[in-house]
Amino acid sequence: MPTLYGHPMSGNSYKVKLMLSLLGIDYEWVTVDLLKGEHRQPDFLALNPFGQVPVLTDGDVVLADAQGALVYLARQYDGSWLPTESVALADVVRWLSITTGEIRQGPESARLYHLFGLKTLNIDRATERATFILNQLEQHLSSHPWLIGDAPTVADIAAFPYIALAPDGQIDLSPYPHVLSWIERVKQLPGFVGMRGIV
Amino acid sequence: MPTLYGHPMSGNSYKVKLMLSLLGIDYEWVTVDLLKGEHRQPDFLALNPFGQVPVLTDGDVVLADAQGALVYLARQYDGSWLPTESVALADVVRWLSITTGEIRQGPESARLYHLFGLKTLNIDRATERATFILNQLEQHLSSHPWLIGDAPTVADIAAFPYIALAPDGQIDLSPYPHVLSWIERVKQLPGFVGMRGIV
Q: Of A84, A189, B65, B132, which residue is least crowded by CB atoms under 10 Å?
């Protein structure tokens, strides 16, 4: 049975939990207490030298990255979530890059600043980045139901948490009706689970 | 014939150029003059609404992300650069996430600050991130010749430019001998081409 090491407030942990739930896979959840510094203890660093949650293990397999874990789960358990054709696969990778680039530097960073008090972040820059990526997403989703093609992929699951959690970073989603509709479509997927801030 | 729209000082443009060269693919290069704002003109925004280089086109295919372009080229022209097995593919995606996350926020941002004068960046944070990822890379490469497995993959090509260009961000690579050896291994690949700062 897979084991997911994560934190209940981490959107990156949540996206792997969501994927496991959408795929109907039983798994064990282990909370890594970040406030107590458990992510910097030798046991955890042996799983992920970066000292970051989440980590997904499955038998001997150890995956120390949320996006990597989503791709693994799709390829291993239900390929319909990850296209193999070259252009569609490249589009998935593009949206994973946007997730770890623009979304991380935008709404994810704004949430770290406002909700967790990481005041060394440049909040003006994070808010500007968040506005940029939300405008891009709004434009894209105005003519596409999902990020790629006619069905959800791992790209939607990767991008979803920190977009849906944008209000935690004091970013109002009401100017983005197509983004809000996409959030609702994700929530309607069979097996959907939420987290604090996404219900 | 593929067309690569890029800028000669852009490491993200360079990585796609490098991949095309390693694969022995003829292509057309189009310089997008960022100083003149050509990336914000309607013609270019029609290719990439994000207004970023590079963009790779191949027939009707348009790929507006360096990592996506690498994955497309590998899948389309030489699959040996992109594993299909679930764990190896997830590991590739992990290193692509690190490239667009830690490497972008670390050495790539330090280069933007020092070489291009983007002084709104928090240079202390960028330098700290650069040190973190270089230490992680050094540790990993001390027991692995390439980022994944025994042969180079798109992950190496994605990570390579902004690591090799770290000195542009006033980051000294001499404390990282295994990283320097890996840079040399990339440079020895048949078909290798350099750019300013990587020769």
A: A84
Neighbours of A193 (CB within 10 A): 13
The answer to whether the Cβ–Cβ distance between B68 and A90 falls below 8 Å is yes
Domain boundaries, given as residue ranges, for chain A: 3-80, 83-187
Question: Do the Cβ atoms of A50 and B125 come within 8 Å?
Answer: no
Is residue B141 classed as helix, strand or coil in its secondary structure?
Answer: helix
Mean pLDDT of A114-119: 94
Cβ-nearest to B68 among A64, A84, A94: A94
Cβ-based contacts of A75 with chain B (< 8 Å): 86, 89-90
Asked if B94 lies within 8 A of A122 by C-beta distance, the reply is no
pLDDT of residue B116: 94
- Contact (Cβ atoms closer than 8 angstroms) between residue A128 and residue A148: no
The helix/strand count (H/E) of chain A reads as 8, 4
Q: What ipTM was reported for this prediction?
A: 0.96
Name the residue among B50, B71, B140 with its Cβ closest to that of A136. B50
- B83-187 to CATH, choices 1.20.1050.10, 3.40.50.2300, 3.40.190.10, 2.60.40.10: 1.20.1050.10
Residue B120, Cβ neighbours under 10 Å: how many? 11
Measured between CB atoms, does A59 come within 8 Å of chain B? Answer: no
Which residues are bridge partners to B3 per DSSP? B28, B57
- Give the model's pLDDT for residue B120: 85
Task: Specify the CATH number of the domain B3-80.
Answer: 3.40.30.10
Q: Using 50, 70 and 90 to split pLDDT, how confident is the model at A147?
A: very high
- A120 pLDDT exceeds 90? no
In this prediction, residue A73 carries a pLDDT of 98
Percent residues over pLDDT 90 in chain B: 98
Residue B165 scores a pLDDT above 90: yes
